Amino acid sequence: MVSAPLNQPWIGRGIVVTSSPDAALIGRTGLVVDETRETITVLENDREVIFGKNSIEFKIGDSDVIIDGKLVRQRSEDRIYRNKRSE
Known about the structure:
mainly beta, SH3 type barrels, six-stranded antiparallel sheet, 1 helix, 6 strands, about 5% helix
């Protein structure tokens, strides 16, 4: 069984921003190079760009699951080892 992208490490995986109050962020893609409690750093066209988790919804890798950044505002090590109940 493959676990949800929510409970997997994101560093080294692709990201696609699917929704944001800032229309300029929608559709941006890149490779996740760092993650903190509040931000995701993405390598986009040989440049590092920092997105605030609070203001984006995104997909990780080739998954169809859309992740709401507001709900994953914790350190990556806390997010990975936390068990999420299915709803």
